[in-house]
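help with these C-alpha coordinates:
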Amino acid sequence: MISASHNPYHDNGLKVFGHNGFKLPDSEEHLIEQEIFSLLAAPVAPAPLALSVEEDLVRQYLDYLLGISSLRLDGVKIAIDCGNGAAYRLAPELFQTLGAEVVAIGCAPDGRNINLNCGALHLAGLQEAVVAHAADFGAAFDGDADRAIFVSAAGNVVNGDAVLLAAGRALKAAGHLPGNTVVSTVMSNLGLEKAFQSEGIRMVRTPVGDKYVLEEMVRLGAALGGEQSGHVIFREYSTTGDGMLTALRLFEIAHNAGVGLDQLTADLQIYPQLLVNVRVREKKGLLELPAVAEQIRIAEQAFDGAGRVLVRFSGTEPLARVMVEGPNMEQVETLSGNIANAIRLAAGE
Protein backbone atom coordinates (compact mmCIF):
# COMPACT_ATOMS: atom_id res chain seq x y z
CA MET A 1 0.00 0.00 0.00
CA ILE A 2 1.02 3.64 -0.49
CA SER A 3 1.13 5.16 2.98
CA ALA A 4 2.66 7.88 5.09
CA SER A 5 1.16 6.20 8.15
CA HIS A 6 0.62 9.01 10.68
CA ASN A 7 2.72 11.56 8.76
CA PRO A 8 1.86 14.28 6.18
CA TYR A 9 1.12 13.26 2.59
CA HIS A 10 4.56 14.26 1.31
CA ASP A 11 6.11 11.47 3.43
CA ASN A 12 4.26 8.80 1.44
CA GLY A 13 6.16 5.58 0.90
CA LEU A 14 5.45 1.92 0.23
CA LYS A 15 4.30 -0.58 2.83
CA VAL A 16 4.67 -4.11 1.47
CA PHE A 17 2.94 -7.24 2.74
CA GLY A 18 3.79 -10.81 1.86
CA HIS A 19 1.32 -13.37 0.55
CA ASN A 20 0.82 -14.60 4.13
CA GLY A 21 -0.49 -11.21 5.30
CA PHE A 22 2.62 -10.32 7.32
CA LYS A 23 4.86 -7.32 6.77
CA LEU A 24 8.11 -8.28 5.09
CA PRO A 25 11.26 -8.83 7.17
CA ASP A 26 13.86 -6.05 7.08
CA SER A 27 16.15 -8.08 4.81
CA GLU A 28 13.48 -8.45 2.12
CA GLU A 29 12.45 -4.79 2.40
CA HIS A 30 16.09 -3.85 1.85
CA LEU A 31 16.25 -5.93 -1.34
CA ILE A 32 13.10 -4.29 -2.71
CA GLU A 33 14.47 -0.86 -1.82
CA GLN A 34 17.72 -1.58 -3.65
CA GLU A 35 15.77 -2.74 -6.72
CA ILE A 36 13.75 0.49 -6.70
CA PHE A 37 16.93 2.57 -6.47
CA SER A 38 18.47 0.67 -9.38
CA LEU A 39 15.38 1.28 -11.51
CA LEU A 40 15.46 4.98 -10.66
CA ALA A 41 19.09 5.13 -11.76
CA ALA A 42 18.18 3.78 -15.20
CA PRO A 43 14.60 4.92 -15.80
CA VAL A 44 12.43 3.43 -18.50
CA ALA A 45 9.05 4.52 -19.77
CA PRO A 46 6.43 3.34 -17.26
CA ALA A 47 3.68 1.00 -18.35
CA PRO A 48 0.13 2.38 -18.23
CA LEU A 49 -1.29 2.07 -14.71
CA ALA A 50 -4.85 0.94 -14.19
CA LEU A 51 -6.39 1.57 -10.76
CA SER A 52 -9.67 0.21 -9.52
CA VAL A 53 -11.48 -0.16 -6.26
CA GLU A 54 -12.45 -3.74 -5.57
CA GLU A 55 -15.84 -3.24 -3.96
CA ASP A 56 -16.08 -6.93 -3.19
CA LEU A 57 -12.93 -6.72 -1.02
CA VAL A 58 -14.43 -3.82 0.90
CA ARG A 59 -17.53 -5.88 1.62
CA GLN A 60 -15.46 -8.91 2.62
CA TYR A 61 -13.46 -6.81 5.07
CA LEU A 62 -16.49 -5.21 6.74
CA ASP A 63 -18.34 -8.54 6.82
CA TYR A 64 -15.31 -10.11 8.50
CA LEU A 65 -15.21 -7.45 11.24
CA LEU A 66 -18.95 -7.73 11.78
CA GLY A 67 -18.70 -11.50 11.90
CA ILE A 68 -16.14 -11.72 14.71
CA SER A 69 -18.23 -9.75 17.21
CA SER A 70 -21.67 -10.02 18.74
CA LEU A 71 -21.54 -6.34 19.71
CA ARG A 72 -24.61 -4.17 19.25
CA LEU A 73 -24.38 -0.42 19.78
CA ASP A 74 -28.03 0.61 19.60
CA GLY A 75 -28.51 3.78 21.62
CA VAL A 76 -24.75 4.42 21.79
CA LYS A 77 -23.21 7.56 20.32
CA ILE A 78 -19.68 7.34 18.93
CA ALA A 79 -17.48 10.13 17.59
CA ILE A 80 -14.75 9.12 15.15
CA ASP A 81 -11.91 11.01 13.46
CA CYS A 82 -10.71 9.21 10.34
CA GLY A 83 -7.75 11.52 9.74
CA ASN A 84 -8.85 12.07 6.12
CA GLY A 85 -7.31 8.69 5.48
CA ALA A 86 -8.03 5.04 4.79
CA ALA A 87 -10.91 4.69 7.28
CA TYR A 88 -12.87 7.72 6.03
CA ARG A 89 -15.62 5.61 4.47
CA LEU A 90 -15.43 2.25 6.21
CA ALA A 91 -15.28 3.24 9.89
CA PRO A 92 -18.55 5.24 9.87
CA GLU A 93 -20.27 2.41 7.99
CA LEU A 94 -18.98 -0.23 10.42
CA PHE A 95 -20.32 1.44 13.54
CA GLN A 96 -23.57 2.58 11.93
CA THR A 97 -24.18 -1.02 10.89
CA LEU A 98 -23.73 -2.02 14.54
CA GLY A 99 -26.50 0.42 15.47
CA ALA A 100 -24.47 3.34 16.80
CA GLU A 101 -25.19 6.99 16.15
CA VAL A 102 -21.94 8.15 14.54
CA VAL A 103 -20.47 11.64 14.58
CA ALA A 104 -17.70 11.54 11.96
CA ILE A 105 -14.95 14.07 11.28
CA GLY A 106 -11.82 13.86 9.13
CA CYS A 107 -13.76 12.07 6.39
CA ALA A 108 -13.04 14.31 3.39
CA PRO A 109 -9.67 13.27 1.94
CA ASP A 110 -8.31 15.37 -0.93
CA GLY A 111 -4.87 13.77 -1.27
CA ARG A 112 -3.10 16.45 0.76
CA ASN A 113 -5.05 16.76 4.02
CA ILE A 114 -4.33 13.27 5.38
CA ASN A 115 -3.34 13.53 9.08
CA LEU A 116 -3.50 17.33 8.79
CA ASN A 117 -4.46 18.54 12.28
CA CYS A 118 -6.64 15.46 12.63
CA GLY A 119 -6.44 11.75 13.32
CA ALA A 120 -4.59 9.76 15.95
CA LEU A 121 -1.80 12.31 16.50
CA HIS A 122 -4.03 15.39 16.69
CA LEU A 123 -6.81 14.65 19.14
CA ALA A 124 -8.14 18.11 20.00
CA GLY A 125 -10.85 17.99 17.31
CA LEU A 126 -12.08 14.58 18.44
CA GLN A 127 -12.06 15.61 22.10
CA GLU A 128 -14.19 18.63 21.23
CA ALA A 129 -16.58 16.49 19.19
CA VAL A 130 -16.97 13.90 21.96
CA VAL A 131 -17.81 16.54 24.58
CA ALA A 132 -19.96 18.71 22.29
CA HIS A 133 -22.09 15.78 21.11
CA ALA A 134 -22.11 13.95 24.48
CA ALA A 135 -20.68 10.86 22.82
CA ASP A 136 -20.10 7.67 24.78
CA PHE A 137 -16.84 6.85 23.00
CA GLY A 138 -14.42 8.51 20.64
CA ALA A 139 -11.88 6.91 18.29
CA ALA A 140 -9.19 8.52 16.12
CA PHE A 141 -7.42 6.63 13.34
CA ASP A 142 -4.17 7.56 11.63
CA GLY A 143 -3.85 7.86 7.87
CA ASP A 144 -3.49 4.16 7.06
CA ALA A 145 -5.84 3.22 9.91
CA ASP A 146 -3.53 0.65 11.47
CA ARG A 147 -3.58 2.49 14.78
CA ALA A 148 -6.33 3.96 16.94
CA ILE A 149 -6.29 6.28 19.93
CA PHE A 150 -9.44 6.74 21.97
CA VAL A 151 -11.24 9.48 23.87
CA SER A 152 -13.53 8.81 26.83
CA ALA A 153 -16.92 10.44 27.35
CA ALA A 154 -15.21 12.96 29.64
CA GLY A 155 -12.79 13.92 26.85
CA ASN A 156 -9.76 12.10 28.28
CA VAL A 157 -7.22 10.40 26.00
CA VAL A 158 -7.02 6.60 26.18
CA ASN A 159 -3.82 5.41 24.48
CA GLY A 160 -2.47 2.05 23.35
CA ASP A 161 -1.19 1.13 26.81
CA ALA A 162 -4.68 1.43 28.28
CA VAL A 163 -6.12 -0.59 25.38
CA LEU A 164 -3.57 -3.36 26.00
CA LEU A 165 -4.49 -3.47 29.69
CA ALA A 166 -8.22 -3.68 29.01
CA ALA A 167 -7.80 -6.27 26.26
CA GLY A 168 -5.25 -8.30 28.23
CA ARG A 169 -7.57 -8.57 31.20
CA ALA A 170 -10.54 -9.52 29.03
CA LEU A 171 -8.61 -12.17 27.10
CA LYS A 172 -7.21 -13.69 30.29
CA ALA A 173 -10.67 -13.83 31.87
CA ALA A 174 -11.98 -15.58 28.76
CA GLY A 175 -9.08 -18.05 28.71
CA HIS A 176 -7.73 -16.67 25.43
CA LEU A 177 -4.37 -15.28 26.59
CA PRO A 178 -1.79 -18.04 25.93
CA GLY A 179 0.99 -18.08 28.51
CA ASN A 180 -0.67 -15.09 30.20
CA THR A 181 1.69 -13.01 28.08
CA VAL A 182 1.27 -9.65 26.33
CA VAL A 183 3.93 -8.18 24.02
CA SER A 184 4.63 -4.46 23.97
CA THR A 185 7.60 -2.18 23.26
CA VAL A 186 10.25 -0.38 25.24
CA MET A 187 8.04 2.74 25.09
CA SER A 188 5.11 1.29 27.03
CA ASN A 189 4.68 2.93 30.41
CA LEU A 190 6.08 1.28 33.51
CA GLY A 191 2.61 1.63 35.00
CA LEU A 192 1.27 -0.81 32.41
CA GLU A 193 3.92 -3.37 33.31
CA LYS A 194 3.06 -3.08 37.01
CA ALA A 195 -0.69 -3.30 36.32
CA PHE A 196 -0.12 -6.49 34.33
CA GLN A 197 2.03 -7.91 37.13
CA SER A 198 -0.82 -7.42 39.58
CA GLU A 199 -3.08 -9.40 37.21
CA GLY A 200 -0.58 -12.25 36.83
CA ILE A 201 0.20 -11.24 33.25
CA ARG A 202 3.75 -11.09 31.91
CA MET A 203 4.67 -8.17 29.65
CA VAL A 204 7.49 -8.77 27.15
CA ARG A 205 9.12 -5.70 25.56
CA THR A 206 10.50 -5.34 22.03
CA PRO A 207 12.13 -2.50 20.07
CA VAL A 208 9.76 0.20 18.80
CA GLY A 209 7.72 -0.91 15.79
CA ASP A 210 4.63 -3.07 15.40
CA LYS A 211 6.62 -5.35 13.07
CA TYR A 212 8.91 -6.31 15.97
CA VAL A 213 5.92 -6.74 18.28
CA LEU A 214 4.37 -9.20 15.84
CA GLU A 215 7.61 -11.12 15.35
CA GLU A 216 7.85 -11.64 19.12
CA MET A 217 4.17 -12.57 19.32
CA VAL A 218 4.71 -15.27 16.71
CA ARG A 219 7.81 -16.52 18.53
CA LEU A 220 6.02 -16.73 21.87
CA GLY A 221 2.62 -17.79 20.58
CA ALA A 222 1.09 -14.65 22.15
CA ALA A 223 -2.42 -13.52 21.25
CA LEU A 224 -2.09 -9.83 22.11
CA GLY A 225 0.54 -7.20 21.52
CA GLY A 226 0.88 -3.56 20.65
CA GLU A 227 2.33 -0.13 21.16
CA GLN A 228 1.56 2.91 23.27
CA SER A 229 1.02 4.78 19.99
CA GLY A 230 -2.14 2.78 19.28
CA HIS A 231 -0.97 -0.13 17.12
CA VAL A 232 -2.65 -3.15 18.70
CA ILE A 233 -2.50 -6.65 17.25
CA PHE A 234 -5.15 -9.26 18.02
CA ARG A 235 -3.37 -12.20 16.46
CA GLU A 236 -6.44 -14.44 16.47
CA TYR A 237 -8.02 -12.09 13.95
CA SER A 238 -5.26 -10.18 12.15
CA THR A 239 -1.60 -10.28 11.17
CA THR A 240 -1.07 -6.56 11.67
CA GLY A 241 -2.41 -3.58 13.59
CA ASP A 242 -5.95 -2.63 12.53
CA GLY A 243 -7.48 0.47 14.09
CA MET A 244 -11.06 -0.46 13.24
CA LEU A 245 -10.62 -3.94 14.72
CA THR A 246 -9.04 -2.40 17.82
CA ALA A 247 -11.96 0.01 18.22
CA LEU A 248 -14.45 -2.81 17.79
CA ARG A 249 -12.72 -4.91 20.44
CA LEU A 250 -12.32 -2.06 22.95
CA PHE A 251 -15.93 -0.90 22.62
CA GLU A 252 -17.05 -4.51 23.03
CA ILE A 253 -15.02 -4.90 26.24
CA ALA A 254 -16.36 -1.65 27.71
CA HIS A 255 -19.93 -2.38 26.61
CA ASN A 256 -19.88 -5.88 28.11
CA ALA A 257 -18.46 -4.47 31.36
CA GLY A 258 -21.13 -1.76 31.43
CA VAL A 259 -18.57 1.01 31.97
CA GLY A 260 -16.99 3.88 30.08
CA LEU A 261 -13.39 4.04 28.92
CA ASP A 262 -12.26 6.01 31.98
CA GLN A 263 -13.62 3.39 34.37
CA LEU A 264 -12.27 0.48 32.31
CA THR A 265 -8.66 1.28 33.19
CA ALA A 266 -9.08 3.60 36.16
CA ASP A 267 -6.41 1.73 38.13
CA LEU A 268 -3.70 2.24 35.48
CA GLN A 269 -1.09 4.43 37.15
CA ILE A 270 0.80 6.35 34.49
CA TYR A 271 4.37 7.08 35.51
CA PRO A 272 5.75 10.46 34.37
CA GLN A 273 7.58 9.83 31.11
CA LEU A 274 9.69 12.31 29.16
CA LEU A 275 11.18 11.89 25.69
CA VAL A 276 14.01 14.24 24.66
CA ASN A 277 15.38 14.30 21.10
CA VAL A 278 18.99 15.31 20.48
CA ARG A 279 20.30 15.87 16.93
CA VAL A 280 23.56 13.97 16.45
CA ARG A 281 26.39 13.97 13.90
CA GLU A 282 26.24 10.22 13.31
CA LYS A 283 24.41 7.20 14.64
CA LYS A 284 27.02 5.14 16.43
CA GLY A 285 28.61 4.48 19.76
CA LEU A 286 26.37 6.48 22.12
CA LEU A 287 26.80 4.10 25.03
CA GLU A 288 30.54 3.98 24.39
CA LEU A 289 30.85 7.69 25.25
CA PRO A 290 32.03 7.81 28.89
CA ALA A 291 30.07 10.94 29.86
CA VAL A 292 26.82 9.57 28.41
CA ALA A 293 27.29 6.15 29.98
CA GLU A 294 27.99 7.81 33.34
CA GLN A 295 24.79 9.89 33.27
CA ILE A 296 22.75 6.81 32.38
CA ARG A 297 24.36 4.92 35.28
CA ILE A 298 23.58 7.79 37.67
CA ALA A 299 19.94 7.86 36.54
CA GLU A 300 19.45 4.12 36.88
CA GLN A 301 21.07 4.17 40.30
CA ALA A 302 18.78 7.05 41.39
CA PHE A 303 15.67 5.09 40.37
CA ASP A 304 16.84 1.88 42.04
CA GLY A 305 14.39 -0.19 40.02
CA ALA A 306 11.49 2.26 40.34
CA GLY A 307 12.06 3.89 36.94
CA ARG A 308 13.45 3.29 33.45
CA VAL A 309 16.06 4.87 31.19
CA LEU A 310 16.10 4.20 27.45
CA VAL A 311 18.56 5.79 25.03
CA ARG A 312 18.24 4.87 21.35
CA PHE A 313 18.57 6.29 17.86
CA SER A 314 15.61 7.28 15.73
CA GLY A 315 15.01 4.89 12.88
CA THR A 316 14.40 7.68 10.35
CA GLU A 317 16.19 10.85 11.53
CA PRO A 318 19.66 11.81 12.83
CA LEU A 319 18.38 11.92 16.38
CA ALA A 320 19.20 10.29 19.67
CA ARG A 321 16.06 9.72 21.72
CA VAL A 322 16.34 9.86 25.50
CA MET A 323 13.35 8.41 27.34
CA VAL A 324 13.28 8.60 31.12
CA GLU A 325 10.39 7.39 33.25
CA GLY A 326 9.90 7.41 37.00
CA PRO A 327 7.54 8.18 39.84
CA ASN A 328 8.46 11.89 40.09
CA MET A 329 8.35 14.32 37.14
CA GLU A 330 10.92 16.69 38.61
CA GLN A 331 13.40 13.83 38.93
CA VAL A 332 12.54 12.60 35.41
CA GLU A 333 13.16 16.08 33.94
CA THR A 334 16.49 16.44 35.73
CA LEU A 335 17.86 13.04 34.81
CA SER A 336 16.70 13.16 31.17
CA GLY A 337 18.19 16.64 30.83
CA ASN A 338 21.53 15.46 32.19
CA ILE A 339 21.70 12.56 29.73
CA ALA A 340 20.61 14.73 26.80
CA ASN A 341 23.21 17.38 27.63
CA ALA A 342 25.94 14.72 27.79
CA ILE A 343 24.94 13.54 24.32
CA ARG A 344 24.91 17.10 22.94
CA LEU A 345 28.39 17.77 24.26
CA ALA A 346 29.84 14.47 23.06
CA ALA A 347 28.02 13.80 19.78
CA GLY A 348 25.63 16.65 18.96
CA GLU A 349 25.63 18.60 15.72
Q: What stands out?
A: The mean pLDDT is 92. Residues 2-41 form one domain.
